[in-house]
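Bug #77: duplicate submission created two jobs. Keeping one. Sequence:
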Amino acid sequence: MKGFVSFSLGLWVCMFGFAGPGMAQDEDFFGIERKLGGRKSESDVGNVFRNAISNFSFEISTGGGYHQNRLNFHSLDPAAYPIDPALPNEVGEENIVFESAEYAVPVDIGVRLDMFGFFTLGGGYGKEFGRMEHPEFQSHRFNWEADSYTYDKLYATFGLVLYDARRRASFLQWRYRKYSGNNYYMQSELKQRVRQHYPWNFVLEGKYGSLKISKTHDSHLTVSEPFYSLGLRIEREFSQYAKIYVKPSADFSSFGYNMTVTHNNAEQLELQQVKQKFYSVNVGISISIPGTKRCKVPGCGVVMRHIHNGVEYRGSSIWHMQDRKVGQW
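Kept job's structure:
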């Protein structure tokens, strides 16, 4: 009996001895993961500001492309145009289309605003450096004044998120719906797959804006309409703030070729329509503005997001994952 009492007292001492550290651990001084999503600044204005700017990102991209040009030609005086050899003055109702193709290099910088993870709004400025081949129709060639050009583009963008980590989680939930909640093996597998870091984002993005010719390949050429574009943006995240992306897209532009001709001893202005399709692939990098400040508390070595005095901090640079999973250390 005496030994049993001694054993019981020792057991209670051990339980209270381990309970103290356990309670301290439950306090979670650095607040890793479990208490995240709180304030990002001690002041109310700073907290609102940091939450707002965390949805913005800046990006820069470049790549290569191939453009096709169609000049729909119809004139009362074909001899007035730089066509070699010249077309006959009486071309009748024949459909004359001059066509050409060449390569170009686009460069873009822009800003994007993430709207609740469902779509994006943005804008940007771009330049397109390219060469312009002389378009041809049968044995006739339409001669431009030069063989290179530079376009300036100012545009707005709208993106629709097709697939990302959130949609992948919903898709997995749908796939595992046929398994009973009592099937612990399959439910455990589902939780592990949902918790895995999925770095890919697929966004259908449209672009609409104005085009200006800063260096022209022909002085008779003018911009007649705004341009528009449609592309698929494929993103790969390196961290919550940095990602690289590839974007194949197609741009559609329209130009006018103005020429003064003489018909029945009277001068008149003719406008030939030039349609351009530009197929390109851009590679770029996107950097989001970190709404969470970098931790500078002396002696704090936490590399994940954590909390000091109710304010959330990050412990790593923007190039590293803030809340790292297994295999990301």
